[in-house]
Amino acid sequence: MSFDYPEELAINKNKEIINNILKKQASLGIKQFSLEEDFENDCSNIFFILDFHYKTNKQYKIKSNGSGVIDALFTGVINKFSDTYISLKNIALHDFLVNVNFKKSNSPLQTDAPVEVKITLHGAKRCKLYFKAESKSLTKAAIKAVCNAMEYLINAELAVVQLSKDIKSANKRGRNDLQCEYVSQLSELVKFVSYAKVINNLNKN
């Protein structure tokens, strides 16, 4: 429903790089979600069960709170995964947009119109990243948008790790052609998020 920013097109290109690099990708989804609004303290308290799939399947029960559903959800997921995927510590929620497509409504009251939520994230380089999702439920659209963002961020870090290993391997084998290709792909992924700590940790091993 909303127009695409140039950064969204760049993220789509990065997804193609990730698809080519990773044989297996991480995916996550939320099975159960509950929300309690604390009006007195202007706070959203949430509980959700998150399914995480990467090599093995894991399920997490997460409690979180924040200034609204999106803030609480984003904070909860970041806190769960940032110790493992350290580039997530460089990400912050910047803004979000809500658009309603009344043209797709089948109700006289138009209360069933689909809603698109687009969240805006800031990387360490202050570049903006946009992710969106649509549903007839505002909460579901927000959940999907956050999950789409987290899937991209986690898989991007996994791809950076793999590319760093591939660059070293190509260098040892004297494959300058592959090395240049891998460096070019890596340079695209690091435009939005800093992976300096990720790469430094790899070099220590």
What distinguishing features does this structure have?
single chain; 205 residues; alpha+beta; Double Stranded RNA Binding Domain; 3-stranded antiparallel beta sheet; 6 strands
CATH H-level homologous superfamily name: Alpha-isopropylmalate synthase LeuA, regulatory domain
Please identify, by name, the CATH architecture.
2-Layer Sandwich
Sheet with most strands: 3 strands, antiparallel
Number of domain units: 1
Q: How many DSSP E strands?
A: 6
Q: Uncertain runs with pLDDT below 50, 5 residues or more? A: none
Shape summary: globular
How helical, in percent, are the residues? 40-55%
The SSE order reads: HEEEHEEEHHH
* CATH class category label: Alpha Beta
Q: Which percent band covers the strand fraction? A: 25-35%
Tally of separate helices:
5
Strand order of the largest sheet: 1-2-3
| Radius of gyration over all CA atoms, rounded | 19 Å
Distance between the termini: 46 Å
